[in-house]
Amino acid sequence: QLQLVESGGGSVQPGGSLTLSCTASGATSRNFPHFAIAWFRQAPGKEREGVSCIGSKGGRTNYTDSVKGRFTVSRDNDKNTVYLQMNNLKPDDTGVYYCAASSCVWAKDLRTITGDFWGQGTQVTVSS
């Protein structure tokens, strides 16, 4: 079990940057270091899809092609937090971003992964 809370969303212009955080809270936070965590996003009118993943110890990461070279996922297990650094943001990056526990580290296509213990999401809007 995990209780995850996302934060850090906002509105930026194309080319801008944001850093999202996903923090485990409550009594379940002691389980956090045992889970790989994925970031998902849901664009308006589209299905939710995975965009990045990090293993339980942070040693392995995985990204969908559209964000490679622009997004960086990291984690600090002492703080029970996973981060998503997003640079050179594009209008297509607009959506609600969620984090969840996921068996995603070795996935060949992050767009099809599933998750458990979803947070409430944080809105990212990229617009000029």
Structural features:
128 residues, 10 strands, 41% strand, six-stranded mixed beta sheet, four-stranded antiparallel beta sheet, globular, mainly beta, single chain
Could you characterize the architecture of this molecule?
By secondary structure, this protein is mainly beta. It has no helices and ten strands. The protein has a six-stranded mixed sheet, with no helix packed on it. The protein is globular and about 40 Å long. It starts with a strand and ends with a strand.
Please write out the topology:
Layout: E1 4-7, E2 10-12, E3 18-24, E4 37-42, E5 49-54, E6 61-63, E7 71-76, E8 81-86, E9 95-101, E10 122-126
Parallel strand pairs: 2-10
Antiparallel strand pairs: 1-3, 3-8, 4-5, 4-9, 5-6, 7-8, 9-10
Strand content: 35-45%
Helix and strand composition category: mainly beta
Gap between N and C termini: 40 Å
Rounded to an integer in angstroms, the radius of gyration calculated over CA atoms is 13 Å
Please estimate the helix content.
Answer: under 10%
- Inertia-based shape: globular
Run of helices and strands: EEEEEEEEEE
The number of strands is 10
Query: What topology, given as strand order, has the largest sheet?
Result: 2-10-9-4-5-6
